[in-house]
Design goal:
Two copies of one chain form a homodimer. Chain A is mainly β. Chain A is 2% helix and 44% strand. Chains A and B meet through loops of A and loops of B. The structure holds calcium ion (2 copies).
Chain lengths: 715, 715
């Protein structure tokens, strides 16, 4: 039969009498706070189908969720958006702990921007339980809060050795979480990792899945990853736990984007073959190909030794890092054994030291690999230089001629148009700023109102003159405020701008004067939301002047709050004078769980004069290794008189704690307190080049791993 | 003429053509986000009047504000509620810096619960500028965010020597802010404090104004405070800066409520006479009468020496503390001079040491004062014991007979019904819990829904059985959850309860089991809002059992967030077993500005077994002296095995930092890490009585001011 349901109660009613082969139609429209339970028993040949009246037009909003339990059920065409779950999962292949789904299928569904507003409150968008279920042709796009996007759970017998099929899904852009818990797909957990899952992950398209360094975290055995495409994904397909997994015929297009990676191998009998990497730039654990060291007699949640890995017929073009025995340290001392790396192709004309060997590689057999002549060899056998060029074959490069190396003839990874629901329009590229309308703001106009009425990407062009703000400007979309000179903004509240969730700010050619700010400690020209932001923001300051930020102590240029994250903060060609606080106070994630406040921070060609507290406090604490940043560049800057404010308890002029990459060059520090660089987790890279400082002793670095060239002492 | 305006534009229009003597009627109804500007020029005999159609029925909501500028204007009958200002003031006696109000009057208006949701974002509700203005018969009730409720500003010549009149206003309950910035009325600032204000504050009723320790912060000269009533106000009328001020005929009814105070004297030629104090319990700076020491050659913002104070004909009945030379320390070494304390009456039959003398009082002349025979004298002249009793005269006690001491015949302070707008119903007493409906919840019922549908003060009575919560319960009103036994609550999210703004929680007879909580670090049974709370909350736990809070590390009973404040947290007759985190993690105000997370904390007759991290982290940092708490009592408790969790980085079993009063009695600490008590600001009182501890060295106190009686070592 064929019934129509217009609300969750009608759906439950229809299901209660549904017979195998029945179809229940969910009426088009918004279903708000709908707690959908699709429970029933179909048969293999006569499944019970619950489908949208029109695919994509049944809109689940608010705190809606879907649970599927029983056998041979199909759910199709739902669109979750404008909300988030209050429970642990949006879509669950179970009713409760004891009532699971088997032989069920969810297809043609989309979950989009359905993130808990609380950035570090964790949930899954999809939790797979039971056995023999299929999740296909769905889209999961834009998860901004903690918790893997999709999890296959093995937490009881009924969910192990499950033979699920996950195919043709579109895993859309996932922004950088700046924390562990940003995986896009996880199969198993360390606890059950020696159990077989036997899940197939086939022909899925991973588009800019940048949550953390594990795009996929495999934590169980017997899984197949085949024909998937990873497009500009920051991170790797990681065989974190579990044995006997296969990565076959996957394509990793890094396109030279930072920190894009390939495959990371840990544990026993992993097979990695016929994969293609292009333009992968990630290093250390996020290389194009990473073979890890293990921990001897490792506990189940640490690193098991690589044993019996087979890595063959892969091709890596313009990929920067192949890491062998990665993570080698006192604890991770068990080198790979019984393994083979054969018939692979590595091509890179820009970079010579593509391979890094961190420990003894005698347990790996190398045969018939081909490398571009530019690449430095690491071992005297098993590698031959390629004569001539690679051959372009459609979207990929192959090694010419019958050498048996590189991609096999049958290589095919899914294309973007073959993945996801047929009805869903996938997101394209997005500019940060300046994609909206340009609008001239006359002197004396109410800038607060102008911005309140602006749209995302708009550009407000300020005519010369003074602008006094009596309210805090709250930005919930990207906006540019520019002037060709002579526009000065003053403000009466403790902040001029608040970057709220969804907001970003570009200032160009503006003078900011703090003289009218209230006489309290702790003002800031710009602050982030005091609430959690589940969207990352950008702050670009160019050709600006900041002055008189000293009506009271601790007056910052940018102050941020916990649970906020900047993709990039850029200060260029600007001058800062008389600031009683910090330029950038990025130190609010103080719980030492590897969380931090900004990924890329750039100060370029700018001057800083009389800054009371550290120019920058950039803090990442703890020992978690899941993330990439912060990444800092300071170039062509002048700092003068920094850190002498009476409330500068730190007594520092700059504090970098746990920064992963710091590059300080062509920069002068004159009359400053100490610059403090504290290396913690990961493999931090600090380069200091052509820097002038009053006294060498003012540069305090916690270890001797920094590269220092041409450091001059002024005194 | 007589015009009606229905929106701000019509009001502006009507005003633009208004003549002296005109009346403009504002139409009844809601005016949302109305930025009212009342600008015009009336004359002394023909003022321009802007009035509500019916007083109290023009409701200003959202982000509405009122500015008055010009001369001889009257605004009357407005009601601000359900919103807050985005600017620095709700009602301003100015248009902008250069356009002030003179001879203007605001009357019959109310601002109620119109607080910025951001607790520590500061604003004023009323800012008085210009000269000769009057603010009378208004009500200001319930300010919950930072910033004085009403400020008289002297920040330019046009606002000094202003002769304002502030009379017959109702200053309604202001909750404890737990920070500086909670004053109800401030006149001047330190910067202009040597300037005359000449403001009269007459016949106002201050009802439970408990924002901080200054009810009124006088910071200018020549002001008169006369005939005001202070009803159960926590704090004092403080002559903080400025000279030649008068406190006359005011009544302070403390009624034995904690920390209620009277008058604090600093600076030159202050007169304090004919005032009445009753049942004032505040000590140190918050005594019934406090005469401070000053700083020699004090900078303008520190403490000027008391010189020429006249304190006479005051009566203090059942008041606990009169403090002379208060604040005496190395910096504040200038004792009072040329001063007189005469003809006063001090009556207290319960407390002998009412007077505390901190330094040399030879600069004060004492004559003809009378004390109850029980009070210990501090000096051998100027004080006589009272024979017999005081005489009750209406609401006050007088000294019988013609001795010339105590209240004068003409003493009269305003009564509650004479203050405030005639139309406004003033708030009465309020219970914390249990004033709503009682409702029985059956086993298996959805507790989440039951609470979502409850009302403030309701009592949910749980039948015996198990209750599993799949969502976090968000409380935005007070609720009691009780059981006569056998009701167990488990939960699947990282929190069971979130106390949101306006919420409070009482648990009685309930078992809380953490076994189903997620396997992440940082769970908490109860947490506060992650956002700012501008309302204080209460948490009472009675006769409850908490167990299995150890699925992962740092699982707390209560975890709080910044910008949240508990009036009281009480744990009584309860047992806690296997908690991997803390019982109370009250340590989130880490910016050391004198802000903290809870005022009263009580643990009574309870046991705590196997607690991984400090039982309690109670933190107040910084040197600000504006507040009273935290105030802690631990009585009749047993602690066993505390602080041995692997992530207890503090290595402590308890951390009290900056707690103002700590009383620990009849309590056993067995197998624990260190108890750490750090005294910082104020005059902290720590009493440890009949406590058993493994080893004396485990009790770490930062100085030797604690009172320790009967401490036993178990080992
Ligand atoms: Ca991870
Ligand atoms: Ca104060």
């Amino acid at each position: 039969s064929h019934k129509v349901a217009s609300n969750p109660e009608e759906l439950t009613g229809a299901l209660s009498t549904a017979q195998p082969g029945d179809t229940i139609i969910m009426a088009n429209g918004e279903w708000k706070d709908a707690d959908l339970l699709v429970e029933g028993t179909g048969t293999k040949d006569s499944m019970i189908v619950v489908m949208a009246e029109e695919a994509g037009k049944v809109i689940l909003t608010g705190n809606s969720t879907l649970r599927v339990a029983g056998e041979y059920l199909v759910v199709s065409g739902l669109y979750f958006r404008d909300g988030h779950t209050l429970t642990s999962e949006v879509i669950s292949f179970k009713k409760d702990k004891n009532t699971l789904a088997n032989y069920c299928r969810i297809t043609q569904c989309t979950i989009e921007d359905y993130s808990n507003p609380e950035r570090h409150e964790s949930d899954y968008w999809v939790g797979m339980y039971g056995k023999n279920n299929r999740f296909d042709h769905n889209a999961l796009v834009g998860k901004g809060n903690k918790g893997v996007t999709m999890a296959v759970r093995l937490n009881n017998k009924e969910s192990q050795d499950n033979h699920h099929l996950i195919d043709h899904n579109y895993f859309g852009p996932r922004p950088n979480l700046g924390s562990n818990g940003g995986e896009t797909l996880r199969i198993g957990t360390s606890h059950y990792s020696l159990t077989s899952s036997n899940t197939k992950v086939v022909n899925n398209y991973f588009d800019r899945c940048n949550g953390e360094h594990e795009i996929i975290s495999n934590k169980s055995g017997g899984n197949l990853f085949k024909g998937n495409t990873f497009y500009e994904c920051v991170g790797t397909l990681t065989f974190r736990h579990g044995n006997d997994n296969i990565a076959e015929s996957n394509a990793f297009y890094g396109n030279r984007m930072p920190n894009t990676g390939g495959i990371r191998v840990i544990n026993k009998r992993q097979k990695v073959f016929n994969n293609y990497g292009y333009g992968l730039t990630g290093h250390w654990f996020r290389g194009a190909l990473v073979v890890m060291n293990g921990v001897p007699n490792s506990p189940i949640n640490r690193y098991h030794q690589v044993d019996g890995a087979e890595i063959f017929n892969n091709t890596f073009v313009d990929c920067d890092y192949v890491q062998l025995c990665a993570g080698s340290d006192e604890e991770r001392s068990a080198v790979p054994i019984n393994s083979v790396i054969r018939d692979n192709v590595f091509w890179n004309t820009e970079k010579q030291d593509v391979f890094t060997v961190y420990d003894d590689i005698s347990g790996i057999e190398f045969t018939n690999n081909y490398i571009s002549p530019t690449i430095k060899n690491i071992i005297d056998r098993g590698f031959s230089p390629i004569k001539g060029e690679l051959k372009k074959d459609g979207n990929i490069y192959r090694l010419d001629g019958g050498k048996g190396a590189g991609l096999m003839a049958d290589f095919e990874a899914v294309s973007k148009d073959k993945a996801g629901p047929s009805w869903y329009l996938k997101p394209g590229k997005k500019e940060a700023f300046d994609y909206g309308q340009e609008k001239v703001v006359k002197e004396g106009a109410d800038l607060y109102d102008e911005i309140a009425h602006s749209k995302a990407g708009d550009i407000l062009v300020l005519e010369p003159g003074d602008y006094l703000l009596t309210k805090v400007i709250e930005l919930d979309h990207p906006i540019s405020i520019v002037s060709s000179g002579g526009a000065t903004i003053k403000f009466e509240k403790s902040n001029l701008f608040a970057i709220e969730n969804g907001g970003s700010l570009k200032l160009k050619g503006i003078t900011i004067d703090g003289a009218e700010a209230p006489d309290y400690a702790g003002n800031a020209v710009i602050r982030t939301s005091r609430y959690s932001m589940n969207k990352n923001y950008q702050l670009w300051i160019e050709d600006c002047e900041f002055k008189d930020l000293d009506v009271n102590h601790s007056f910052h240029v940018l102050d941020v709050y916990k649970n906020t994250f900047a993709d990039s903060i850029m200060i260029k060609d600007s001058n800062f004078t008389d600031v009683s606080g910090s330029i950038l106070a990025l130190d609010k994630e103080n719980e030492d769980r590897g969380i931090y406040n900004a990924e890329y921070v750039v100060l370029e060609n700018s001057t800083f004069n009389n800054i009371g507290q550290p120019i920058m406090k950039l803090y990442r604490g703890g020992s978690d290794e899941s993330t990439f940043g912060p990444i800092l560049t300071i170039a062509d800057c002048d700092f003068e008189k920094v850190g002498f404010g009476p409330k500068n308890d730190s007594n520092k002029a700059m504090v970098l704690h746990g920064v992963q990459k710091a590059n300080i060059e062509n920069t002068t520090f004159s009359d400053t307190k100490e610059l403090n660089i504290f290396h913690t987790v990961g493999e931090p890279v600090t380069v200091i080049e052509s820097v002038v400082i009053d006294d060498r002793s003012l540069l305090q670095i916690s270890d001797n791993t920094a590269t220092i060239h041409n450091l001059k002492e002024a005194k």
